[in-house]
Amino acid sequence: MSEKEKVERRSYLKYGGAVVAAAVVAAVGYYAGTTTAPAGRTVTTTVTEAAKTVTVTATPAATPPPVAEFGKGLRFTYVTHGGEENVFWNSVMLGMKEAMAVLGCDSVMIRPKKEGDLAMEASAFETTIAEKPDGIVVPIAYTELLPLVKKATDAGIPVLVHNIDAPNAEDRIKAGGLCFIGQDLDYAGYFLAKSLSKYFPSGSHALILMEGPGMVWAEERAKGIAQFLKEYKCTYDRLDVSFDLAVVESNTSAYLQAHPETKAVFSVGYTSPIAGKVLEAMGRPPGEVAIGTFDVVPLVVDGIKSGYTTIAIDQQPYLQGFLPMVQLTMMKKYALGAWDVNTGNAIVDKSNVATVEELSKKGYR
Amino acid sequence: MNARTLVSNLLQKKEVSVSVILAITILFFFSIQQKFLSNANVDVLLKISPELGIPALGVTMLMIAGEFDLSVGSVFGLAPMFAAVMMEMGINPWVSILLTLMVCCLIGITHGVITVKASIPSFITTLGGMLIWRGVSLAVTGGLPKYFYMPPEFMNLVVHRVTTFVYMQELWFFAITIIFFIILERHKFGNWMASTGGKKEAARAMGINTSMVKIVCFMLSSLAAGFGGIIQSTRLSQAMPNQGDGLEFDAIAAAVIGGTSLFGGSGTVIGTVIGEYLSRIIENGLIIIRAPSYYFRLYIGVVIILAVIANLYIQRKAMRVRG
């Protein structure tokens, strides 16, 4: 190879690197720009809708509406276990950010680099207590967090629990957790199974796909589904899978081949629409097997549109981010008490899937 | 030359010994449950395997050249995300895909240049890459999933079902395997790769530009990972920010089961293809024979270790017969 060629290759590499860097920076920049734009747009709509009850007249304007002064000076912290790649928690965060814009208070959400990292969540919690914000919002993903809830309460910081409650709500109340804003997971599983039971006969066989075996949220939902199935006199199997969709497809296919008598498929996460694809490939018509799932992601929306996925339960993560801010601000300003909210019984089916699809594209559902 | 020597010669080939294991596995599951080889089940196995197999092919090439790539799962997620974002910006889907694949190449080249120029283990470079590229797809999208609706022409080219058991993604998988096979076995670049991975100093002394060889292999690895991600997103019409999470280990496992050395210098892409099918089949088969579901991971772990041991055993045995 000649010297000239070498130089050329090197400069290709150099320019190549520059192009990658530029592309990445441009994309991030572009998106940083656009993600704030929809936020601005929705702030105005939220306010006009809220105006009915709050009696604040706000006209859609580019400048922040006067309400933004409401919670000025208040600082809140969300400590969570939802890793940065977790789609669900991004909607929670969007809710928090928009509440921030509407109320004018300041808030941050601490998320671990690795999903469900207890050590990281606990240490972030400790740090937050030391920093003394005006309120803390935390999901009790692990009961080990309860002593920290108590510590924060003892330090005079109000703690609201969202997303996941302690397995025994009494323990949370004893520790000082003032309310729970989220989906009662056990009940959500029960609610899903019950809502789907219109579409499959009593006494039949069902499959439960477990995307997070051993994790509280997954086990609790599975427990609820199983409880209803028992009451409905159905037999069921649970199949441990992950969120790797290709593997879910192969495993579900194998299961449905081996158990053609299956009349309903549930998932504790969002993967059961894959079962619809499998059934379609097997040449079975939509509706023959009822499919119920959680959360609103493109896979679920497409599944419902195709007719193979029957219903999905949306636990409305946006509300789990938005509402704690409202409550904390009220508590701080007017010494009002916190209140429990069940965000988790919104059913998505063929009748409302189009609306939900539009909102899900923006991260609200 | 008698029949026995012929068989032992054949069995010494990694592809053949792992195929024997594959055949035994298939027979085992089939003997317990005939539905294992039903059209629908075979169909789904053939349909999904390329998505995970194509990245594994890229990883195999890189492992032969003596390096690792832990970033394939993240690139698998980034590529469709990147294409989706470009399409949202109004760029033509074909151009978006082309640009995305170019970006994947550049990502691989970047990993390669950093590894080679800074002389750090690729384990570290690509561990960094794994976090960085996952981080980029999260930052770009705010972590939200994207719809991934491609024009029908593109879908026909990438995920179309040609006829029973024949999918476009499979044809891509085999075409890439054949190209890589030719590079490895019939082209001097393949020799360069093996020497670079086996004995770098000797390769250098022979006048091989080992840095260039490695950089090209890094590029192939990222390109294959990105392409795999695009196939999956096209098939499911969605790009998820967590897509491909953990794929790096599946890819390395497929390569190693197929007989590629963890230490570089030797390996086979056909072995990887078989290794990939083997790992998919084990999981699928366990379900179809109704093995109790709580024990799946346990079984799969045991079976993977046994498969690799059996592979080595068959090869050694074959060598002894010959000796």
Would you give an account of this structure?
The complex is a heterodimer of chains A (365) and B (323). Chain A has a six-stranded parallel β-sheet, with helices on both faces. In chain A, strands 7-6-8-9-10-12 form a six-stranded mixed β-sheet, sandwiched between helices. Chain A is of the alpha/beta class and 365 residues long. Helices cover 51% and strands 15% of the residues of chain A. Chain A folds into two domains: 143 residues, 3-Layer(aba) Sandwich (Rossmann fold); 129 residues, Response regulator (Rossmann fold), CATH 3.40.50.2300. In chain A, strand 9, helix 10 and strand 10 form a beta-alpha-beta unit. Chain A has twelve helices and twelve strands. In chain A, helix 9 crosses helix 10 and helix 10 packs antiparallel against helix 12. About 8% of the residues of chain A have low confidence. Chain B is mostly helical and 323 residues long. Chain B has one domain: ABC transporter involved in vitamin B12 uptake, BtuC. Helices cover 76% and strands 3% of the residues of chain B. In chain B, helix 3 packs across helix 9, helix 3 runs antiparallel to helix 11 and helix 8 packs across helix 9. Chain B is globular, with a radius of gyration of 20 Å. Classes of the chains: A alpha/beta (365), B mainly alpha (323). At the A-B interface, helix 1, helix 2, strand 7, helix 8 and helix 10 of A face helix 3, helix 5, helix 6, strand 1 and helix 11 of B.
